[in-house]
Design a protein that fits this description.
The structure holds 2 protein chains of 2 kinds. Chain A has 22 helices and 34 strands. Chain A folds into 5 domains: about 250 residues, Pectate Lyase C-like; about 60 residues, Alpha-Beta Plaits; about 100 residues, no CATH class; about 160 residues, FAD/NAD(P)-binding domain; about 120 residues, FAD/NAD(P)-binding domain. The mean pLDDT of chain A is about 90. Chain A is α/β, with parallel strands linked by helices. Chain B is α/β, with parallel strands linked by helices. Helices cover about 25% and strands about 20% of the residues of chain B. An 8-stranded parallel β-sheet of chain B has the order 11-21-20-18-17-14-13-12. A 3-stranded mixed β-sheet of chain B has the order 6-22-23, covered by helices on one side. Chain B is globular, with a radius of gyration of 27 Å. The chains are: A alpha/beta, B alpha/beta. At the A-B interface, α5 and α22 of A face α1, β2, β3, α2 and α4 of B.
Chain lengths: ~775, ~550
């Protein structure tokens, strides 16, 4: 049956032509001949009847010839087709005896498109692969246009390349972009394809078999059997493009070339070994992890045992190592602990145990938790010890002038070191101010005597009642290696005001008390000028001598320590300041101050310090403002003369004792000709001590063992193994030493420098330090 | 008077004042110390805690106490050792037991000026709000009205021109025997480079660690030679390694000259040994992060490597003044600098100035427009980063880039020169991670290219910094990532090969994203520079100011 697309010069609409075709097939027609006139979609949608429907088309066709064509439909177009021939082909066999233009077989799913000529742009794009059906076939005899097989997902396209329009490129510009499946067989030259989507490979024998078999019906259909021999001449004439599999694409997705390879093959050959900075870097260029050991650590721990003084020893002018005393007690060496103190002071019981304000205890870290260690009582425990053994004689001779705390300390230390010491004292007994001026109440005679006698065991040659003159000094200077001046400050400082002649010097007052010839103060009103520690002692003594009232006045807030003040206040002493004395009227028994006030005063005692009497010194020993000028080692301007104690500057007894010891060390070094190693002067910061380990306990009863346990051992290792246990990496271990000591050591190969040892050390011994290495 | 140390909490800071508070999980912690080993500022330290429990067992009050001592991690409350929130601790913690948490109510800036020294840091501006450019949308989509392009299918040529582009009538071309030919009789033809429109902005050798710098440089070389993307990188002020300068890779690098002129005598010495001209010369007049402020490389960073490359002695402070000393006026200063630098390479290399974003940018531009040797103008906006600056400079000084570029571009349009003098936008590109979108928006506002700095540090080397003042330790030499430090213990954490790989990733993906933006807008072969009808913003005032459409 013939269906006309143009009836009497009038074009039949696409809709009408379609209706006629459908009706004809419904009516049983199986062979149709259509005379087309540009109608759209001719020949598609002939739903299968079980019989073949053959449609031959002549004349100009519109777009989408055979679109949605079904299996069983065979369309032959006698001439060229317009765009989109075979659009969503679902099984029809479409033969175009001419060229197809753009978009042939676009979105085709099944069926066959035989093209006698070539294809336009975007042919075979978006073709499908439905597993229910045989794959689609598209055959192009000549060549195809640009963007061929874009997004192809299935089906087989064959481009034979016979007599192509573009002889240099039969697949057009950039074929196969986005292609994910199917095959393109082609024969002839091409200029590139989408390399990210497909690969171009040789045909397999299976491909070749398929091609050789299926090309026959194609050539027959397009009436080109004459080319069979040429087209099937050699498998090598053909190539195929197939899509990369998803797995292959994933593999290819990474770098075209690993950067390490780029470095080795491109970068370093051009810029040099080791890269652009290679010539400047002298360290290993390997990559470091964040957590490193050995020399790559940022910080490393250091076991700084005894590298810092604990606050107690730092605060103690005599540097008595109370922490070591506690440590020895903890080790069960009580005797050694008590004896240790004698290496620092000849008067632990008198000074530490009685008269010292115990700066050590004020500083004690334990005091920040509950209350400080009872160092006073620990000092008192050393009372009954005999003199320690001393070193063998060195033959060096030292003269010490003055048997006060400073002179005794220096003599004691030098005697301990084996030097021959001659001690010269103007009075008839040893002790200086602690003997004369300290109220017996505060320092019972029994205790002082005991310690003085221990001093005497040391074998120092003592010359009492020997007042030193310039002449004697010169003799001592010549006959001894070293002279130590420890003459103290004996002359009371006074101030001049109207009636000041009637004022009693405090030092004389105190001496009189201790010498058993005290003033009678019964019922008297006493005013003490100067509210320092000595002033407080005077106030106490005055009450003991029967004074009715004692008032201490000062021009500034009182310099006395709180303990001394409390003792005096407890007895009734009033302290007034600021009070500048204007005059004293001995007749009216009244003292007047510059602020217009006055006090009744039967007796006025002045206690504003003392100055030394230095008339025996040669000019080579420089003095300043009445005191001998020294450095911390007691060295004067004369290399043979040293000085300690109040002769150098006013201070506490413990200052004098400390200076005595330091000076003795310097003297010893000088006589023995070695360099003095300076003592540690750094104090450990409180923050470094982990007080949190200790439980607050307010022990009332004194016991040495308890005190030793309370000691926080600031800056000195208490051998608790805390660090060793805490270290996650096992980098810390305890090493016993041959001398019975021990140390904790770090294995740098294990340590990461985390700082846990330093952070948790109860004693603050571990410290983190920058791990400097030579690589910088 | 009570000694001060006994009044323990007086004048001490509470943790609430600090910008980051360490959340430490006692129950998960194994006390391995990795966190404290790695903390760059020692803001955390191992410590000892005591627990005391009073309990009573039985049916009548019968108290007893239990005391337990525990080791753990403590955050210090020292203003000099504040937790910067970098999170190195979390990074290395094997049991997820520690993490810094941002404290939005911190009062850090009230205190961070001890000794009268204002807070200085590196990094970025602390402003997490989205920038103007981040609010831009691409609203002109080809929907049947224009031929739509497909980012995957079509070929794109995303390139820009760096250099003075002559107007058509001045092009040195003529028709000879019916064919187009280059005229010989024209004297100076401005050098122009075709480059990728996203560049790596100026970060100096010295500001960056050798591993970071080399990683970036290698990535750039890879992009050019393996991927075919002509990405260029600016050296920053501080010279260039001679090995690189005298290699063929030199052509991928823009040499920067700034007010300190560091490394320039070394470069000048090396010119005869160069085998390729550099991509361009950038004259730095200002930096967006710290406008009007100079630079200072602290002496402790000036080690052998830096000293050699900069041509200075080791261990000295290297100060770059805020301005070039021989600068007397726009006309005079810019002109003579451009002349000098052009001469050094025989007028074969584009030379352009970089200024910080400023209200006066248009004045600079108008001057450059009249200078035939000026190759471009680079403007660095307030969102730029820096290795070191005063906090106040970073947070409060500067000009946003969007309107600055837009004004300049529209000025060029008025003069009909919009295709002649390229504008380069820097500062905050990719601030919230949308690099390609930011770049595309800036291009459509009128920029020919954009520069990135912080973005590449984040994406290529996992820089910890963010707009909440996280990390920002760049100025201290203690960068925990190894990016901005000269300490080999730190920078050896960074693998230059990995950095290079990430640089490649970043540019490849930005390229794809740019295609995804440009394709629906129908642009594939030419950058849509100034194509502002494609932009929209849901903020009326921004829309009006930038002369783009308001959409909602």
């Amino acid at each position: 049956m013939i269906i006309h697309g143009n009836i009497k010069g009038k074009r039949v609409s696409s809709r009408e032509l379609e209706e006629r075709v459908q009706k004809a097939v419904r009516d049983g027609e199986r062979t149709l001949s259509i005379r087309a006139d540009g109608q759209h979609g001719i020949g598609g949608r002939i739903w299968p009847t079980g019989q073949k429907v053959r449609i031959s088309v002549e004349g100009p066709v519109g777009q989408r010839l055979g679109s949605m064509g079904m299996a069983g439909t065979e369309i032959v177009l006698k001439g060229g087709a317009s765009d989109d021939a075979g659009w969503i082909n679902c099984g029809a066999r479409i033969t175009v005896l001419g060229d197809v233009t753009n978009g042939a077989h676009n979105a085709g799913a099944q069926g066959i498109l035989y093209v006698q000529g070539g294809g336009g742009a975007r042919c075979d794009t978006m073709t499908k692969a439905n597993p229910r059906f045989e794959p689609l076939q598209s055959w192009y005899f000549r060549d195809v246009g640009d963007s061929f097989a874009e997004f192809k997902a299935g089906g087989i396209a064959v481009v034979c390349g016979v007599n192509p329009r573009n002889s240099g490129n039969i697949l057009g510009y950039r074929p196969c972009v986005g292609m994910v499946g199917g095959t393109v067989y082609f024969r002839g030259p091409i200029q590139g394809y989408s390399q990210s989507d497909v690969k171009c490979v040789d045909l397999t024998p299976q491909d070749w078999d398929w091609l050789c078999e299926n090309i026959k019906p194609y050539l027959k259909a397009i009436d080109r059997m004459a080319y069979l021999a040429e087209l099937t001449r050699s498998i090598r004439d053909w190539k195929k493009l197939i899509a990369y599999t998803p797995a292959e694409k994933k593999e290819r997705k990474g770098m075209k070339m690993p950067t390490t390879e780029f470095r080795a093959q491109v970068w370093e050959p051009a810029v040099g070994k080791g890269g652009i900075f290679g010539e400047y870097l002298d360290h290993d260029q390997t990559i470091l992890p964040y957590i490193t050991t050995g020399e790559n650590r940022r910080f490393r721990p250091v076991w700084n045992n005894h590298q810092y003084l604990p606050p107690c020893a730092y605060a103690c002018p005599s540097r008595i190592p109370s922490h070591r005393r506690a440590s020895l007690i903890r080790e069960g060496k009580l005797q050694e602990a008590l004896e240790l103190v004698l290496q620092y002071s000849p008067f632990p019981a008198s000074v530490c145990g009685r008269i010292c304000p115990n700066l050590c205890m004020d500083a004690c870290t334990r005091g920040r938790l509950d209350k400080p260690l009872d160092i006073k009582n620990l000092g008192a425990l050393s009372l009954d010890l005999p003199a320690p053994g001393k070193a063998g004689s060195t033959g060096n001779k030292v003269a010490v002038i003055g048997a006060g705390p400073g002179g005794l300390s220096a003599a004691w230390q030098l005697a301990l070191k084996g030097h021959s010491v001659s001690l010269y004292e103007a009075s008839d007994r040893l002790g200086g101010k602690i003997e004369w001026c300290v109220p017996r109440e505060r320092l019972p005679q029994k205790i002082l005597k005991k310690e003085i006698s221990r001093f005497e065991e040391m074998g120092v040659s003592v010359h009492l009642k020997t007042k030193i003159t310039r002449k004697i000094f010169n003799e001592l200077y010549k006959s001894h290696n070293i002279v130590i001046v420890a003459c103290g400050a004996q002359e009371a400082r006074t101030i001049q005001f109207q009636g000041s002649d009637h004022v009693v010097p405090g030092i004389e007052f105190l001496k009189q008390v201790n010498y058993g010839k005290p003033m009678d103060l019964a019922g008297k009103k006493v005013v003490v000028i100067g509210a320092g520690n000595a002033g407080m002692d005077i106030a106490c003594q005055s009450y003991d001598l029967g004074a009715e009232s004692v008032t201490a006045v000062d021009i500034q807030p009182p310099a006395s320590f709180s303990k001394e003040q409390e003792m005096a206040k407890a007895k009734g002493t009033r302290i007034l300041y600021p009070k500048v004395t204007e005059k004293y009227d001995p007749k009216k028994k009244k003292i007047h101050f510059k602020d217009g006030t006055s006090l009744n005063a039967d007796v006025v005692i002045i206690s504003i310090g003392e100055t030394p009497v230095l008339d025996f010194l040669p000019p080579s020993v420089h003095t300043e403002r009445g005191f001998i000028q020294v450095n911390e080692y007691g060295q004067t301007s004369d290399v043979k003369v040293f000085a300690v104690g109040d002769a150098t500057r006013p201070g506490l007894v413990t200052h004098a004792i400390g200076q005595g010891r330091l000076t003795a060390d310097a003297v010893h070094a000088q006589m023995m000709s070695f360099d003095l190693i300076p003592e540690i002067k750094q104090v450990i910061p409180y923050e470094r001590i982990r007080t949190v380990y200790y439980e607050r306990s307010l022990v009332d009863e004194f016991a040495p063992q308890k005190e030793a346990d309370r000691c926080m051992s600031c800056g000195s290792c208490r051998d608790c193994h805390m660090c060793e246990t805490t270290c996650y990496y096992g980098a810390i271990s305890r090493k016993a030493m041959e001398d019975g000591g021990f140390e904790y050591v770090v294995d740098p190969k294990l340590c990461v420098g985390c700082g846990f040892c330093a952070g948790i050390c109860p004693c603050g011994v571990w410290e983190m330090t920058e791990n400097l290495s030579s690589t910088r | 008077m009570e000694p001060a140390e006994r009044l323990d909490q007086n004048h001490e800071f509470s943790l609430r004042e600090f910008p980051y508070i360490i959340r430490w999980r006692e129950d998960r912690c194994t006390r391995c110390g990795r966190c404290t080993a790695v903390c760059p500022v020692n803001a955390i330290e191992p410590s000892v805690f005591a627990q005391r429990l009073v309990q009573s067992e039985g049916s009548t009050p019968l108290p007893s106490t239990v005391r337990k001592i525990m080791h753990g991690i403590r955050q210090v409350t020292d203003m000099e050792r504040y937790c910067t929130g970098c999170g190195s601790c979390s990074l290395v913690c094997p049991t997820v037991a520690i993490e810094p948490e941002y404290n939005p109510r911190h009062k850090f800036l009230f205190y961070k000026n001890k000794g009268g020294v204002p807070y200085t840091r590196g990094g970025r501006r602390n402003d997490p709000s989205p920038s103007t450019v981040d609010q831009m949308k691409f609203t002109r989509i080809s929907m049947l009205t224009d031929p739509a392009l497909d980012a995957g299918r079509h070929e794109f040529h995303i390139r820009t021109l760096l250099g003075r582009i002559l107007p058509p009538e001045k092009l040195p071309l003529e028709v000879k025997d019916g064919l187009l030919a280059v005229r010989e009789d024209i004297g100076f033809i401005p050098p122009v480079r075709e480059i990728y429109p996203i560049r790596i902005g100026s970060m100096s050798v010295g500001a960056l660690s050798p591993h970071m710098w080399e990683g970036l440089a290698m990535g750039v070389a890879y992009l050019n030679e393996v991927e075919g993307l002509p990405v260029v990188m600016c050296t920053g002020e501080g010279g260039i390694p001679p090995r690189l300068l005298t290699s063929r890779f030199a052509k991928y690098f823009i040499l920067q000259i700034a007010s300190g002129y560091f490394g320039w005598d070394e470069i000048i010495h090396a010119i005869p040994r160069m085998v390729e001209d550099p991509a361009a010369i950038e004259i730095k007049y200002g930096q967006g992060a710290k406008p009007g402020d100079g630079g200072l490389l602290m002496a402790y960073k000036v080690l052998k490597l830096i000293a050699k490359i900069r041509g200075v002695p080791e261990y000295v402070d290297l100060a770059s003044p805020p301005t070039h000393q021989t600068q007397y006026s726009i006309e005079e200063a810019v002109a003579k600098m451009i002349q000098s630098m052009s001469m050094a390479w025989g007028f074969r290399v584009p030379v352009y100035p970089k200024i910080s974003g400023t209200k006066t940018a248009r004045a600079v531009l108008n001057n450059l427009a009249r200078n035939p040797y000026a190759a471009a103008l680079c403007i660095d906006g307030e969102d730029g980063g820096t290795g070191a600056a005063y906090n106040v400079s970073m947070d409060k000084m500067g000009h946003p880039i969007a309107s600055n570029i837009r004004d300049c571009y529209l000025d060029l349009v008025k003069q009909g020169k919009q295709n002649e003098l390229p504008l380069i936008a820097a500062g905050g590109m990719g601030k919230t991670g949308s690099l390609a979108a930011n770049a595309a928006a800036m291009i459509m506002l009128g920029a020919s290219a954009v520069d990135i700095g912080k973005y590449i540090m984040q994406s290529a080397a996992q820089c910890f910094g963010d707009e909440y003042n996280r990390c920002n330790l760049c100025n201290t030499g203690r960068c925990p990532r190894g990016i901005t430090t000269q300490d080999p213990k730190l920078y050896r954490r960074l693998d230059p090969d990995k950095v290079a790989e990430r640089v490649v990733d970043v540019f490849k993906s930005a390229d794809m994203e740019l295609k995804k933006i440009f394709a629906p807008m129908g642009r594939s072969t030419q950058l849509p520079i100034g194509m502002s009808d494609g932009l929209g913003v849901a903020d009326k005032e921004i829309a009006e100011r930038l002369k783009i459409s308001y959409v909602c």
